[in-house]
Amino acid sequence: MVAKNGRWGFRLCFDWMRNQGYEWNHKRVWRIYKEMGLNLPRRTKKRIPKMPRVPLVAPTEANSMWALDFMYDTLHYGRPFRTLNVIDESNREILAIEIDISLPAARVVRTLEQLEDIHGLPQAIRLDNVLNARTFSSDRQSHTVTAICS
Question: InterPro entries this protein is in (predicted)?
Fold first, then answer.
C-alpha cells in the first residue's frame, strides 16, 4: 500500500485500512508504521526570499518617489474598512486616497494607472509590506518603477 502510494502519511494509511475493514487501534498501526521506517520527512515551510533593504534617501525632486500605505480601521458600529494612501515623498502631497470595505489588487492597480495618467510614473515606490511589494512588482513589469520595502 505504501509502496504504491509513496506520499501517503500515517493518517491516510490508517484511514485507508479502516475503510478496508481492519479494526486495528491507531496506536498499534503507528507503532508498526514507525518500525517499518515509513515515516515521511516533515515538509519544510516555504521560505519567501527577502527583498534587499535599500537605505532611506530623501527625494529632492517632485514625483521621484511615492509611498503606498494600506491602513485599516473600523466604523463606529464595528464594520471594518481599508484605505490606500499614495503620497509624493518629496513634497508630502497626497496623490490619492482610496477608501472601501475591501481593496483588491485590481483596484490598487487601477488607482495607480489613474495616477500615471495624471502625474506620470515615479522612479520608485516605497511600500511597507514585502508581500505588497512583490505583488506590485509582478503586476507592473512593463514599467520601470522599482518597489522599495522599508
Answer: HTH-like_dom, Integrase_cat-core, RNaseH-like_sf, RNaseH_sf
* Same domain for 135 and 83: yes
Three-state SS at 127? strand
CB 105 within 8 A of CB 91: no
40 and 69 housed in the same domain: no
Same domain, 137 and 80: yes
**What's residue 49's pLDDT?**
79
SS3 79: coil
Number of domains forming the structure of the chain: 2
Q: Tell me if the pTM is above 0.85.
A: no
19 falls in which pLDDT band (50, 70, 90)?
very high
Query: Residue 68's beta-bridge partner residues?
Result: 86, 127
Please give the grid coordinates belonging to residue 89.
515623498
Could you tell me the residue range of the domain that residue 86 belongs to?
Answer: 65-149
Secondary structure (DSSP) of 76-91: TTS-EEEEEEEEETTT
